[in-house]
Protein 1
Amino acid sequence: MIRNTARTVCLAALSFAAAMSLAQAQTPLQGASPAPPTVTPPPITMAVPGFWDPRRRPERPDLSRITVIRFLTETDYPPFNYAGPDGAPAGFNVDLARMICEEIKVQCTIQMRRFDTLVDGLNNNAGDAVIASLAATPDMRRRVDFTDPYYRTPARFVARKNANIDDVRPEALEGKRIAVVSGTAHEAYLKALFTEAVLSPFPNEEAARAALKKGDVDRLFADGVSLAFWLNGTDSAGCCEFRGAPYTESRFFGEGIGIATRRGNDLMRQAMNWALFRIWERGRFTDLWLRYFPISPF
């Protein structure tokens, strides 16, 4: 399960998403007023992940057999899942669940629970699917089935903006001091592939970020989602930026995040896969991603 994203950093995305929704809600009607000049928006340059192959379109299952989808999600993992101002479920995962129900054209309920009760609730028929940033690990696959992944948590390098070296290949980082959180997959990855770098282990991400910000290390290697919100927030004070490409090797960083369904419920799993592909194909996934991730971890 994905739990290395610092909650205090992720809160930066909430105000961004709320501002986007407010701006959309306040768009005035044109009425009889002259239409404003057409403005062509600039092309999207931010990287938006896509894990669907357009050449492998999922078959549309018999959706008539699905009349309602009861989603289970967790209570406090912003910006993916959290309680909104009115106490109702909100967040990236919640909005995606609603899009899925719109594509399948069924009623949708979303119930918030503690994270450690979600899988048991699913298997006890308290819900039909879990959408809560649940990682498809081998242990978890023995308990539930998963849809195709709809996002991953890549590893990324971050450097201070005034650092004049962009190359983050292993040979380019020989002798460089790299901050990393001890005991993580990120540390194991560096030890395996960046053998000539000088690792500086820290007990948590906050300490590693502070070391980079002060210039005590040359690079920081950590979870890209957490880093994206730090870079976009006030704690970073605009000190740093991503360098190089995302690292998504499954042996270290997992197979991605999918929606969990009960073992053997192939109809529900196939319906979710079909709906996710449609949401991506129509550009709705990109819109959702840009709303919650002002700085992409990819």
Protein 2
Amino acid sequence: MTTDGLVLYKLIILYMLDRVDFPLTGSQISQFILDNNYTNYFNLTIAQNELIENDFIKPTVERNHSLYEITEQGKEAIELFEFKISDSIKLDILNYLKEQKIELRNESAISSDYYPSNNEYIAQCSIKERNQTLLEIKITVPTQEQAIHICDSWREKNEEIYQYLITQVWQEE
């Protein structure tokens, strides 16, 4: 791998993150880059790790995936070096983000995780929109299996639960 290649992979990641107003998962970034054959997984991992180490992107680890956001330093870098990305790659990125926007947003907006607490487990589930928390619930359960089940079910049932809660809270007597 050449130094120029590594720089390009970093710039592609920064460009992607700069063009959305929500975090992207590692798999969303890698899907785009690998599906378009820009590089291999090994080089992509090196690029991501160097961006994190140099504070250009900020990772947040959730139960089954990592979310990435561009930092102020990353925004400055892409502003200065965006010209090194070809117009065709930029167009590929913009088309990917446009075609996948709802799916990309939903994947990063719905989160769930669990953690141990006093011989029990707390399942923490949330819905975010534009970095604003719409709903966050914490449920204490006796077993790890129950916490995992709640987290897994949250992906499928979050809209239903949100609608139910809103209806119940706003219901007039």
Protein 3
Amino acid sequence: MRIIPLSEGSFTIDGTKQFVPFNKTSDELNDRPSGSLLVEIQPFVVITSEDVLLLDTGLGFEQEGRPQLFKNLMDAGINPGEITKVLMSHLHKDHAGGVSHKNPVTGKFELSFPQAQYYVQQKELDYAFEKGLPSYIPEELECLRTAPQVQLLDGDGVIGGYIQYQLVGGHCPFHQVFRIVDGGTTVFFGGDNAPQLQQMKSKFAAKYDYDGKLAMELRQQWWKTGQENHWKFLFYHDVKTPVG
């Protein structure tokens, strides 16, 4: 199994829920508004014996006239057309911005990976349209409702015989997590319920979570089980340690 972090850079975010680029060598966190959080944005590619998996899709920004996610994939030696499955932990804009991109001819949003199967919780998709801005961008998610290659999930289950998904809530009401077991290796992706290594090691209930106490308890459970069973953890928002 091969794991490739696809960092889109470091950002600060405050109560406005706007992601502002942050240069770790020249910028000062104290210069940002009080309460600003410093986070990395990094989807992951996991190459297994069966698939080329993409775990969450980043902010959806463009670079040099094309999605930054596409550039990052190609820089890692992966053609975007090679992605076979897109696994979405949830649909907040910093995780789902690259789900789709705007067709320059039609002006409509279409799936960024039309050859891949997308896996999204049905209730999370419904909630995204109910809740809307600023956490969700419904316009960019509309194609998830109608595209035939989108698999809308209901609760827990298994994909392809080796990818376990579990609806857990915590960070948002219908957040899901993934455990990928292939070739004797287990990879765990907890999205924003397990965003950084330090949060796994300490009892930390985040005020920005829908249910901070639940998210904290889940992290403690996963960390204990993962330590005992030698899981690899993927940390979407860790500025130093993408894989732990």
Protein 4
Amino acid sequence: MSFYEDRVLPHLINCACGSGTFHKQRAKVVPKAHGQVVEIGIGTGLNLSHYNAKQVERVIGIDPSTRSWELAQERVAQVEFPVEYRGLSGDQLPLDDHSMDSAVITYSLCTIPNPVDALREVKRVLKPGGSIWFSEHGLSPDVSVARWQDRINPIWKRIAGGCHINRDVTLLFQLADIDMVSCESMYLPKTPRIAGYNVCGHARVE
């Protein structure tokens, strides 16, 4: 891992994804998680303040960046439930089958090398009837915007730690054979349209 990826990028992501616009999206889904929760891409802990402590027994955070986890410690100290860290990518979860009640995925599927594999892993570790609460940016349905996303994506990936701006979020869930219960899409305000098409909602594992 380069100096930029290890020491600079975590701070940039923390600032970019910690804006009020993104927190409003997190607030739509994260408080609904309950029980034993696995969070894919916990990063610097931007979701932690949104959990409902009365509903959560434990959060296990998955993220390959130990530097981001270091930056998360102040937020970890402020919550009333235990938070554990696993330094792995989301496509390999060190958890037993059917051991978790909920999963939270926010602004992580864009970066995971194999997002469909990651969703299949989430499906494996969730109990039957378990919920996935998600909010992601991705491929725009507008042809002109999507065309620019495809053009810019190679450069975007290089400067944003592997983040893709042109992944079809709903298609990823379909390929992982996970049913969506509800889904809301919109362009986020005060965000460039190429990076601001947002999909959030609820999926359930049967």
